[in-house]
Amino acid sequence: MLHILRQRHWALANAAQRCLHTTTSRPGYIVLVPEIGEEGQLGEGLLMPNGLPAFTDITIEMCLGAIGQQAAAVEKAMKTLELDIKNGKQLKGSDIYSELDAVTAPLETTWGVAKALYLGNSTLIPTKSYMNIHERARNARAAKFCNKTVYTALMQQEDQAGEAEQRLRQKFLLEGKLNGLTLSKDGQDGLKELITQLGRERGNFKNKVNMAVHAFAHVVNDFQLVRDFPDTLLEATARDPKQALEGPWKITLQQPIVEGFLKYCPDRLQRWNVWRANVLKASQQQDKALENSTHLEKIRGLRKRQANLLGYTNYADMSMQTKMIGSVDNLKQIFAQLLKFAGPAQSVQIEEVQRFASANGAEHKLEAYDVSYWARKQLIAEHQLQEDKLREYFPLPRVLSGMFALSEKLFNIRIVEQSKTEVWHPAVKFFNVYDNDVSNSSTPVGGFYVDCFSKQHKFGRNNGWMVGIRNRNKTADLTPLCALIFNFTDPTPEKPTLLSYDDLQMVFKTFGTALQHLLTQAGYSDLAGLSNIEWDASQVSGYVMSNFLDDPSVLQTLSGHYANDDIIDIELAKKTRLLKTQLAGHKLCKELYLADLDVELHRSSAFWLDVVRKIWPVYQCMPLDKKDAHPCSMTDIFAGDWAAAHFSHLYSKLIAADISSGFGEERSDENYATVGKRYKQTFLSYGGSVPTAEVFRRFQGRDPSVVALLKSLDIFITSQTTEPN
């Protein structure tokens, strides 16, 4: 058992006080101070002789102490490197990168271990302890890119040894510029003050959204209103999740719960009530004390000043420096090409749902809070496609084994469970990955943990995370290691854990991301796997994997009815694509709207509501509610890291669809293996050592196109050109 006490907090506090400060009011939470752990061996006791984490013996104190030691070692190495350069020591770029890789490897491993434990169960690493670890590690790692002496030395070294070294040099120089290393002392001080103000405003924005989310509570006492809820939604809303059918059920404004309620609740007035509260949250229309309009405008203004100080016209232009798309103009062209097909498709699809609703008793014009409810009813009535019945064919163990088998065929690898490896919970499994295409195919190229039953972040929808515990690092002779963490409900003696179609998509996407981490051939840690991948390409490998679910034969290999082991019928397997294509034009228009709104809010100086009113009718066929204030609760953009980057989710889908079209040209094992080898040798191998645009050209022989995405959504019309009107 882990020596981390889950319930006896008093014991944890007493043990921690020997070397750590603890809060008196919340004894389970440990506060890291700068002096902690900066003496002694680096990370002693965290790893076993085989290099894997010693999860049986790891304690919170060990993680905290190790991070302190390892962060100090990185900072010391940076000072030594700086001194060597100032003293005239001749260092090639490869020397600098290798030296930094060697010293940061232990830090990154401890950080990854802590993250896996935290997401697996925050009683193992409490939130406040993890956040201290996270901040200490992030700050130490960022020191690499904030050193003016190293920046100047690399600036003067134009001739790099190879493609990887050139790419690393570009990364260091861009990171240095964005961190203000090209500015004067006054400019750097000004940038620091701006960042501090931004952090404060972003924190205020997030806190008010959180308070607004919890300020609303809609209680349902009538079981008839929740009778169609899936199990995950019932458990998330029931007063007692263990007796989810008994109620009452509390509807909050967490996004998965709102979306689920609008999709499954048959009472239109109650749907309106929840929808209305959701679009008004954190605005003056809901509670003036929680309004975010002021913070939103301050954040926009500070970001513009930040961009201007760093030499960019606006924040959106600055954001494009780390994106595959390259410029706002290129992005706008993509928006226009997609809208040309999505716009007309949206109108047709909404009208189809309207006709169905009217024929089945709806005496009103559909509004935003009606669409998903009636679309679900239409699938059941016209196609006999019931998601609850569908999930009975996909027990979790069968899905995982089928997914691993598919990956082995696609990429000529072997995935082998290692039952004696130390894990943080008895239900966690560990797998080694072997590559049959390398000379030493009997040695694993990487490994991954699978934790299916984490109890974290259950808000009415199952989630999955790929946690990179360790990157490939040739200097430190390290192979990649990661953890796949899901929060599925535990199985019962009567029924295994069953996956919905959305769950299948999520599991495949998570594992696809893991494959890019595990099969990378990049030698430098800062280029391996997902490192240095442009933001708008960071989800490509996940979406490529999930696109295999469009193939009915793949669905059959994953299936086996939990009651009798029957394979899903081929006709039913074909119908599952309707879950992706139904209302695809409408959904794509919504994605385009949010992406363009984000960009324009970081380009325009107009008030946010004026920007909304300008952008909305371009993409949405339903009128904007007069009091709608949805930007006031867009935390990923105004409190998170996705400012002028929200489009990245959509662009990753676009690139992935184009890649998947190569697999889809012929759905056979032979073609899958042929294209899979090419994909493995490019996207899965290069990591961030080659720009993704060039990786795509090496894979597909051309630049990306919107056509494959449109075809995958069944909204492409052959007679039309993709050129915008």
Word description of this protein:
With 725 residues, this protein is mainly alpha-helical. Helices cover 52% and strands 6% of the residues. The chain has 28 helices and nine strands. β1 and β2 form a beta hairpin. α2 packs antiparallel against α3, α13 (328-359) packs across α14 (371-383) and α18 packs across α25 (647-664). The chain is globular.
Compact overview of the structure:
This protein is mainly α. The chain is 52% helix and 6% strand.
What are its keywords?
725 residues, disordered N terminus, five-stranded mixed sheet, single chain, 28 helices, mainly alpha
**Helical percent range?**
40-55%
Number of strands: 9
As a percent range, the share of strand residues is 5-15%
Low-confidence stretches: 1-41
Q: What strand line-up does the widest sheet have?
A: 5-6-7-9-8
- Rg of Cα set: 26 Å
Average pLDDT level: 91
Q: What general outline do the C-alpha atoms trace? A: globular
Total of helices: 28
In terms of structural class, how would the helical and strand content be classed?
A: mainly alpha
Q: What is the CA–CA distance across the termini?
A: 64 Å
Reported for the largest beta sheet, the result is: 5 strands, mixed
InterPro entries: M3A_DCP, MetalloPept_cat_dom_sf, Neurolysin/TOP_dom2, Pept_M3A_M3B, Pept_M3A_M3B_dom
Cofactor: Zn(2+)
Protein name: Oligopeptidase A
Organism: Drosophila arizonae
